[in-house]
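Need the bound structure for PXL, inputs here:
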Amino acid sequence: MENKMFLKRVAAIHDLSGFGKCSLTAALPILSAAGIETSALPTAVLSTHTGGIEGYTYMDMTGEMRPFMKHWKSLNLSFDAIYSGFLGSFEQLDIVSDFFDEFREKDNLLLVDPVMADNGELYKIFTPAFALGMRKLCEKADIIVPNITEAALLLGESYRPGPYSKAYIEDLLFKLGEMGPEQTVLTGVFFDEEKLGAATYNKKTGITGYTLVPKIPGYYHGTGDVFGSALLAALLNGFDLNDSAGIAVRFTANSILRTHNAKTDIRFGVDFEHGIPGLLKDLNLV
Ligand code: PXL
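Answer from helper R.:
Posting the output first, comments after.
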């Protein structure tokens, strides 16, 4: 019981998309529900995310990010993990890199989700050059969580549509590990049309692992952020990489399934909220 009294703290560096459940509107509720205090450093404030919704507003927060960092430093804050996601510009890549330097501790975890692409395509606000900048940030991280499109971009390779072979997935994992991060979680892995999930690689132990669950048709928005947040929640609750990825895959897949069954607009984000009690059970918190 006693360790549950101790509150871990995360700095979540993502955009705040007011509607459409992704980035901060996924990370904050999921991490908080998992008993983790979460501080938000918004990279942009949008009316909605940019995935398939027209007419969104976009307020860039680059100019506020260094002042946030300076103020937090003046308060002597420390973070058990720093979790970066959607970054809107090259300058933000530099700021997050400096944030890592400022708040790096012996045992804290730097998790980078290199949010920039999916399904073989860059999100429309990014350029191929941005991917090279993102690679530099990933080199500094302890753990990275790319999907297959992002992995190919980070490695300067062309995108290959699935299904994949184990040899291809492990080749990506090993090359991503060589870039720097000790741990890699690759999402969107599938070997046939039946199942989909994540692959993990721990460079130190050399161990790879897979969690695959039945595939649900359709492209649901914000699932990378739901996945990354649940993964970090599990890691900070003491689960190892492979178990954490398993918990996060099941939480995300169940959220997609509920949304699929409810037939809500796939752009509006997945129903992760009803999965929170189950997530807390998986994390042994209830
Ligand atoms: O979930 C990734 C994401 C985060 N933030 C914004 C996005 C996207 C993907 O499209 O548009 C603003």
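Comments: The first strand starts at residue 8 and ends at 19. The pocket of PXL is lined by residues 15, 17, 22-23, 46, 49-51, 86, 115, 123, 222, 224-225 (CB under 6 Å).
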